[in-house]
Amino acid sequence: MRPFKILFLMLYFITGPVLFSQGKKVIIIDAGHGGTDFGAIGTNHIKEKDITLAIAKAMLFYNSILLDNTYELYLTRYKDTLISLSHRTKLVNALQPDFFISLHCNHALNSKATGIEIYLHNKTSLQTENQVKSKAIALAMVNVLTERLGYRNRGIKRANFQVLRESIATSPAILVELGFLSNVDEASYLELKKNINALALALLMSIKN
């Protein structure tokens, strides 16, 4: 993956257009897994639950120091705890955010599998406002993660994941698979704090774009 240019990102934040209308927007960041649910385990023994939480916390941090708290961010978990999927979506229905993003890492039997996948709820034929916004953010996210961080694009896909199914009526919602822990290179990339920070900034950038 190409080296991350933090100065470029800072300039982009200042000059880039916003997808949402003006005013502080509420965003819920769902750090996948947690507690006894480790999620995927990397070739280097890193755990998906730790990576997703680290990225979510980094998004909180950069929203504060670079974006002057442009967004009102909430996490579904702030530490290594097991939160049920239903409780995660109850938070969505309670806060009625402008956007919901669930963070995950991938795993495959094929150790050569690489890249990012972004999931929308599978009932896209409804074409509700939330579905349309979800797809727009997903497209922006794919562009940023591939062009700025060098990820391979595995495409925007559709699934009936519970966090999407129970959120889409309330909020635009996507689920992001941020690389394969079963791949040596991508697992090693996600092990480094500077790359976690790069992902956090890129995700914020793609929401703003």
Overview of the molecule:
The chain is α/β, with parallel strands linked by helices and 209 residues long. The chain has one domain (26-208): 3-Layer(aba) Sandwich (Aminopeptidase), CATH 3.40.630.40. 41% of the residues lie in helices and 20% in strands. The protein contains 7 helices and 6 strands, in the order αβαβαββαβαβαα. The protein has helices at 6-15, 48-65, 85-95, 129-147, 162-165, 184-190, 193-208; strands spanning 25-31, 71-75, 99-106, 116-121, 153-159, 173-180. The chain has a 6-stranded mixed β-sheet with strand order 2-1-3-6-4-5, with helices on both faces. Helix 2 links the parallel strand 1 and strand 2. The protein is globular and about 40 Å long. Residues 1-19 have low confidence and may be disordered.
Write the layout of secondary structure elements.
Blueprint: H1 6-15, E1 25-31, H2 48-65, E2 71-75, H3 85-95, E3 99-106, E4 116-121, H4 129-147, E5 153-159, H5 162-165, E6 173-180, H6 184-190, H7 193-208
Parallel strand pairs: 1-2, 1-3, 3-6, 4-5
Antiparallel strand pairs: 4-6
Helix pairs in contact: 1-7, 2-7, 4-7
